Amino acid sequence: MSSESHDAQPSDGVAQPTGDEVARPPRNDIEPAEPIENPGLPEHLPRPTDVDPKLEKRAERQVAGMFTAAIILTIGFCVAYFTIPKDAVIFGWFSLNLALGLTLGGALFLIGIGAIQWAKKLMKDHEIIEMRHPARSSDDDREAALGVLDEGVAESGFGRRPLIRRSLIGAVAILGLPAIVMLRDLGPLPGNKLFHTVWRKGMRVVNDVSGIPLRPSDIEVGQLVNAQPAVFFETDSHGHAVFHGTELLQAKAKASVIAVRIRPDDIKPRKGQANWDVDGIMVYSKICTHVGCPISLWEQQTHHLLCPCHQTTYDLADGGKVIFGPGKRPLPQLPLAVDSDGYLIATSDFHEPVGPSFPEVNQHRD
Amino acid sequence: MTDTASTTATPLKDTGFGKKSAGPVEWLDDRLGLAGAVRKNIRKVFPDHWSFLLGEIALWSFVVLLLTGTFLTFWYQPSMAEVPYTGSYEPLRGLEMSQAYASTLNISFDIRGGLLVRQIHHWSAALFMAAIIAHMLRVFFTGGYRKPREVNWLIGIGLFALGLIEGFAGYSLPDDLLSGTGLRFVDGLIRSIPIVGSYLEFFVFGGEFPGELIIARLYMAHIFLLPGILLGLIAAHMLLLVYHKHTQWPGPGRTEKNVVGFPMLPVYAAKAGGFFFVVFGFTALMAAVLQINPIWTYGPYNPSEVTAGSQPDWYMGWVEGAVRIMPNWEFTIGPETFSLNVFIPAVLLMGLLFTVLAIWPFFETWATGDKEEHHLLQRPRNAPTRTAFGVAGMTFYGICWIAGGNDIIALKFNLDIFTITWICRIGVFVGPVIAFIVTRRICISLQRKDKDTLLHGYETGVIVRSPEGSYAEAHAPLPVDAAYALSARPRVPELTAPETEDADGVRNPQGRKARLQAWAKRFFFSHDIDKPTQAEVDEAEHHFHGDVYPPDNFPDDFTGVSETGVPKHH
Amino acid sequence: MRFLSTHRRHPLAGYAVLLFGLLLAGALYYAFAPGKAEADTAGDTAKIDEGRQLFLVGCASCHGMNAEGIMTKRGGNYGPSLIGVGAAAVDFQVGTGRMPLAQTAPQAPNKPPVYDEDETEALAAYIASLAPGPAIPDEEYTDVSEISQEDLTRGGEFFRTNCTACHNSVGAGGALPSGRYAPPLRNVSARHIYEAMQTGPQQMPVFSDDVVTPEDKRAIIAYIKNVQAQPQGGFGGGGLGPVVDGMFAWIIGIGGLVAVSVWLAAHGARVKKKRS
Fold first, then answer.
1. Same-domain pairing of A333 and A236
2. Distance from CA of B509 to the nearest CA of A (A)
3. Interface of A with B in 73-102 (CB under 8 A)
């Protein structure tokens, strides 16, 4: 780096006014001054508000005007808050939200613009030079710092006493264990929970929300029914729902199903699942095997089921296998039958885990 | 106001200001001893450029988030206990929903100003992340992360990563159908972690999804843990900025050893302080006229419901897109299944992005061999390879982003969603390569143009006919300020052959590394067009003298010629 | 008569003949065109006949002379069989302008209807006469002007369980594979929504009255109308969610603030010094 040759090197952090004493530019210190030498700070040109008192007053009025407008808008905010009813609507928007937002936002914005305009038009705008200092400490400081560190460490005996040192390191390091161990009760172990749902042999398939049980004749070819196990609509002897609250959500996250009816000629069942349908009515899990979104974009003519989240597409006429998208495992099917009253029932739980894949998903567990 | 008088007029203690402030100043200083720090810092110089304000947008957005977030905590309840809704939004009345959702509905409809603050908070979060990325790109493309600012860059990447998680936690708190679907996605994401996925899932959710703990845990992270860490990192980021002083663009009067600009008090205090109000006010105005996250239309979270067009907030869109375009790679080895279709785009890719971003300054130092301190910024064109890498990265990110909205694009532009997916699958690899090549070429031609302008002057647009009958466009030399600014860049370093053997033919044990480094340096610099040498400039000036037109010397305030070729002056 | 023959070579004679021809054609058409079926006249048979006439002109080319459908060799069709689709399907398809199909496309879009209400009624009556099928719903189930609170909430639950996956939370529509889509539900009449659920047009599945009862359907329609009429906290971006919000955050938010930044850092007007 070339050295500066101008006079009056100010100390760090103290700004230097421009003036003739620094008009001589420092040499270009990016590279040895070439090919063009640094011409130095350009001469400061005054602004119109600096030379014309009328314009100066005008700028002052502008800034003060903005601040005053902000005051008025802020008062407007308070008025709006207490006078506009919560359900008032203007052009389809909540009036209160619009009024409060415009007044508050306007006030804040005007304060900001006013302050910036003040700085731009009226505050002294001479560019000032401040010298940088190297990021590193001086050699002296470094040596001294290392020296005192060394002194302190030496006095502690850390270096000289390996027994203390090693046992200390061991004691502190092993403190990591309680931190980890204490997290054990964050949650229970998964056990077999991911392999089972609430579906049981003989449980009716019912329409979601209404709980209506389904007869085969209720469902036409091309129909889609968003369904649930009947147990979600049952109440116990006290009249309370058997499943409610968090447990209901947890069970629903695995047990939700869809029922579709396809022409039997078009169906190509998966191996071992040939008799799981009832006259072309099939029940599949509604939970995508990719990351678990519920799927019910059913295209009745193509038999494709599209998940809206990441577009995994299943062919329900072909064993629920994936024909596009990032999902891999085919959609689990629920084996179906008809009970003595003529309603659709499951003949067992799903034969494979429902929902997103997890590391143990292909293990066979009861 | 004309130039203020110097401080030699009236002693401060005799002015009105001096008299009034003497008491309080004494009281404070007796106890806190701040005068030294004030003396040193209150007139600190900051350079002025609009692109230096992008980080400020992020900073002030963070303050707005803290203020509006505190307001929201007065009413929000982070509980997943199910309650029937009894508030004023009709279509959901009587429905069982979590208290978190019910309290958010309450804020939106029954607390005056609640909807406004919710919307300011959410717009602010979106702006926070957008400003972080814009600021990061500005720092990247201008080389502002070079020594001594690498640590600040790392802090910034940390802020970026934590901001992503903070935003995710925040928009999941209302427990509505859209963000609940996002949580379900996270559930599947955790499951895809090899070997331990299902255990981690049960630990994070406190049992089976959704459990009753996740909202409260996210709340803790969102209002306590992450803001605390963010505040600490922001403080460190600002401290380093003050210590190192801000970088500046090269130009007349600016060198590696100084900072030219305006003092903190009063100009920067007014501009930056004013900018805070601008950011806050602008965000509030957006919240007044632009609806965001209308959770009441989504309904409470229900694992058997979903809405078409389910996307996370925009800053997670690239992860969403990567997940959508990933092929369905999932395989089983023995008892374990590896769901790479989820693990790679959702977990590994995020790790990859932040790792690449974090190590970039060190990689560039290694590849270019540049170990100098830099306080002057580089125009992107003067670092063509770096700029090209940056644009390639942006292309990758951008294509993932587009893939995240593929169903909205398909719907609104009547396209096939599967085709869009395939285009993105291929584009995400091909796009960055093409972007790299094209960007580097553009930068190099811009460098060539700059060199040309320095040597031959700028084109005046005046066509001159010589006596022999030929036509030529007259050039005029740049004013010295502009010429200096163009030439104020480091020279392209020399590319030397790697030292694989010393003078006696002994092989260098670091030979392979040295060869690799030399190759990298060549990759970075071999195509760059250097600024002209002194000899070239002298020769060019000489040629100018020989021209019939324009005249030999131009005064410094030469601003071109009029239509008839008469130099303009005032 | 002499006037006409002596002026037969007048420059405007041609135009006069043309005008006369047009008027004549118009008058003849008006006289012989199928008249509007009056509501209370002639009863069902007349309607069915009228419907058949309209069908033969406008629909038979794709759907066959007897609505049996026209199949292609590869098992597709130019127009499917309409036997058994019921009056509801016709009322929906024709009433929303989807039929007649103007051009091939991945999906029949809705467009301004070609047939007016009476003609649609006639077509529906004709198709209904071919075989039993879903009937046009009673007003009782499509009048949602007075809906109870419970029904409104229930309708929302049904809507979010069965419909939003394709049509989106506020009925803004959604994408399906291969260029198909679930259309937006804005400005669709209650009757047409009901009929769509009942008959499952194109790729939309059927939601039969046995599973989603007429009362449930009414609740769903009431919810749709209600949620679309709810006030918003500003411009809603079409109900398309975070994608649009992100676009606004960058374009309006960052764009606007960068504009302010450029202004903030701009050097502003300078008083240029006079040259000495």
1. yes
2. 32
3. 81, 86-87, 94, 96-98, 100-102
Judged against a pLDDT cut of 70, whether residue C27 lies above it is answered with: yes
C264 φ, ψ (degrees, to nearest 5): -60, -45
CATH number at residue C189: 1.10.760.10
Of the residues A77, A94, A121, the one at which a domain ends: A121
Q: Please report whether residue A136 resides in a domain.
A: no
Q: Which of B116, B262, B320 sits opposite A125 (nearest CB)?
A: B262
CB contact under 8 A, A30 and B256: yes
C-alpha distances out from residue C230 to A88, A93, B89, B103, B214, Å = 11, 9, 9, 19, 31
* ipTM of the shown complex: 0.89
- Per-residue model confidence (pLDDT) at position B286: 97
Give the side-chain half-sphere CA count within 13 A for B14: 5
d(CA A20, CA A24): 8
Whole-model pTM: value is: 0.89
* Chain segment A276-333, per-residue pLDDT in tens: 999 999 999 999 999 999 998 999 889 999 999 999 999 999 999 999 999 999 999 9
Q: At B513, list the tokens.
A: 């590394």
Is A311 part of the contact surface with chain B (CB cutoff 8 Å)? Answer: yes
C242 domain residue, yes or no: no
> pLDDT confidence of C129, banded at 50, 70, 90?
very high
Same domain, C150 and C226: yes
Q: Are residues C186 and C121 in the same domain?
A: no
Q: Of A51, A101, A220, which has the smallest distance from its Cβ to C271's Cβ?
A: A51
Structure tokens of B419? Answer: 């085709």
Question: Is C242 in Cβ contact with B311 (below 8 Å)?
Answer: yes
Nearest to B382 by CA among B516, B527, B495, B205: B527
Domain residues for the domain of A110 are: 48-121
Element holding A129 (H helix, E strand) = strand A128-131
How many CB atoms neighbour CB A59 within 10 A? Answer: 19
pLDDT tens track for B413-472: 989 999 999 999 999 999 999 999 999 999 999 999 999 998 888 888 888 888 888 888
Contacts of C153 in chain B (CB under 8 A): 91-95
Question: In chain B, which residues have pLDDT < 70?
Answer: 1-9, 544-558, 561, 564-565, 567, 569-570
- Kindly list the partner chains of chain B, i.e. chains with 3 or more CB atom pairs below 8 Å: A, C
Which tokens sit at A313? 């597409």
Residue A207 and residue A73 share a domain = no
pLDDT in tens, B31-49: 998 888 888 888 889 998 9
Straight-line distance from the first to the last Cα atom of chain A, in angstroms, rounded to the nearest whole number: 76
Name residues 12-41 of chain A within 8 A of B (Cβ).
12-15, 25-26, 28-31, 34-41
Which of A121, A140, A170 represents a domain boundary (last residue)? A121
Computed from CA positions of residues B46, B47, B53, B58, in that sequence, does the dihedral angle turn out positive or negative? negative
Q: What is the pLDDT of residue B220?
A: 97
For chain B, give every domain's residue range.
12-41, 52-306
Instruction: List pLDDT tens digits, range A197-216.
Output: 999 999 999 999 999 999 99
Which among A115, A310, A357 is the nearest to B274, CB-wise? A115
Domain boundary among C82, C102, C134: C134
Number of domains in chain A: 2
pLDDT on residue B544 = 66
Interface check for C274 against chain A (CB to CB < 8 A): the answer is no
Altogether, the residues listed in chain B come to a count of 570
Q: Residues C112, C173: one domain?
A: no
User: B271 and B49 in contact (C-beta within 8 Å)?
Assistant: no
Residue C147 lies in a domain: yes
Pair A226, A110 in one domain: no
Mean pLDDT of C215-242: 92
Range of the domain at C175: 137-230
**Are A209 and A314 in a shared domain?**
yes
For the segment A167-188, what is each residue's pLDDT rounded down to a tens digit?
999 999 999 999 999 999 999 9
- Judged by CB atoms closer than 8 Å, whether chains meet at C226 and B294 is answered as no
What class does CATH assign to B52-306? mainly alpha
Residue A229 domain flag: yes
Q: Are residues A199 and A338 in the same domain?
A: yes
Q: How many domains does chain C have?
A: 2
What distance in Å separates the CA atoms of residue C96 and residue C108, rounded to the nearest whole number?
Answer: 10
